[in-house]
Design a protein that fits this description.
Blueprint: H1 2-30, H2 40-61, H3 66-83, H4 86-90, H5 102-124
C-alpha cells in the first residue's frame, strides 16, 4: 500500500517539475525573463518538496477512511493551491523592468502541481475494500 503512495509522490513531483520548468523556459524565452527571480533549481526543489509533504499527509490520512479522507483532502489541497496564488499577486519585485507581469508567470506554477497530483492520485491509488 505504501508503494502506491510513494509512486504517486515521486511521479507527481517529477512530472510537475518537468512541466513547470518547461513552462518557465518557454515563458522566459518568449515573453519576459524571470530566471533571476525564480531559477529552475528553485522550481524543481519546490515541486519535489511539496510532493513529499503532500504525499505524507495523504498517506497519514489514508488510515482514517477511504472515501471521506480523499474528498476532504482534495478540497483542502485544491483550496490551498488556489489560495497560494495570493503570494505572487502581492509580491514586490524592485529593480525589475516589468514587475506587473510576474503574477502571469508565477500563478500557473502554483496550479501545475495540484492539477498533476490530483489527476495522478485517481489513477495510482486504488481503493482497498
Amino acid at each position: 500500500m505504501f508503494k502506491q503512495y510513494l509512486t504517486l509522490g515521486v511521479s507527481a513531483g517529477l512530472i510537475s517539475a518537468i512541466v513547470s520548468c518547461l513552462f518557465a523556459y518557454l515563458f522566459n524565452h518568449n515573453l519576459l525573463d524571470f530566471s533571476n527571480v525564480l531559477p529552475y533549481w528553485k522550481i524543481i526543489a519546490i515541486d519535489v518538496s511539496f510532493s513529499l509533504i503532500a504525499i505524507g499527509i495523504y498517506y497519514g490520512l489514508s488510515f482514517l477512511s477511504t472515501r471521506f479522507f480523499k474528498v476532504i483532502f482534495n478540497f483542502l489541497f485544491a483550496f490551498s493551491s488556489i489560495a497560494s496564488v495570493l503570494l505572487p499577486i502581492t509580491a514586490q519585485l524592485p529593480n525589475f523592468e516589468f514587475p506587473e507581469f510576474y503574477p502571469t508567470f508565477a500563478i500557473p506554477l502554483h496550479l501545475i502541481f495540484s492539477v498533476i497530483f490530483l489527476a495522478l492520485s485517481s489513477i495510482l491509488i486504488k481503493d482497498e475494500k
